[in-house]
Design brief:
Layout (H helix, E strand, L loop, with lengths): L11 E4 L17 E6 L4 E6 L1 H8 L1 E6 L2 E7 L5 H15 L7 E6 L7 H14 L3 E7 L5 H12 L5 E2 L2 H9 L2
Parallel strand pairs: 5-6, 6-7, 7-8
Antiparallel strand pairs: 1-2, 2-3, 4-5
Helix pairs in contact: 1-2, 2-3, 3-4
């Protein structure tokens, strides 16, 4: 059991050739991973590429001060991985109840291209009905321009914090 305020590991599980009797009907093709990812409603099994599995590992729920927070870790992503992580984040968020999700987005050292920015703007806007509170960490340099563009496009104000710890404190306050 985690102590109050302790950051706990993600609840995402990935293993090569995941083999439990319940999942024995799944076939594993070379170069693919069978992933079992937990969301708030149920576990799901799916066959996905290694690149998609890596993106899915970057999106997971953590507990902070007894509350569930969706950590979306874009840190050090290239533009292609950024697009995959954005889509995975939207997949998880859109399965939650409206106005219920707390999100912590870490963009430290991430790279963007025009397509990644377009996908990000679109998904941030689409996630709005589900997100109760969102926070961003890791903005530096030219990322500030992208940050402002995403907020303007989505009509959302997403506060920027200097650290994950400060962002988590703000997300769970009330």
């Amino acid at each position: 059991m985690a102590e109050p305020g302790e950051l706990v590991p993600c609840t995402c599980f990935f293993r090569q050739n995941y083999r439990y009797a319940y999942f024995s009907y799944l076939s594993v093709s070379p170069g693919f991973t069978v992933a079992w990812a937990m969301n708030s409603l149920m576990g799901t099994a799916a066959q996905i590429s290694p690149r998609h599995a890596a993106a899915a590992e970057r999106v997971c729920f953590i507990q902070h001060m007894g509350q569930k927070v969706l950590l979306i870790d874009y840190s050090k992503c290239d533009a292609k991985m950024m697009r995959l992580v954005v889509e995975e984040g939207h997949r998880i968020i859109s399965r939650e109840s409206p106005n219920s999700v707390l999100t912590l987005n870490d963009v430290s050292g991430a790279s963007f291209d025009a397509e990644a920015v377009a996908v990000l703007k679109s998904r941030v806007a689409a996630n709005a009905p589900y997100v109760k509170r969102a926070a961003v960490v890791g903005i530096s340099g030219l990322q500030a321009l992208i940050y402002e563009a995403v907020q303007a496009f989505s009509s959302r104000r997403i506060p920027l914090f200097p650290s994950r710890a400060e962002a988590l404190e703000w997300l769970v306050k009330d």
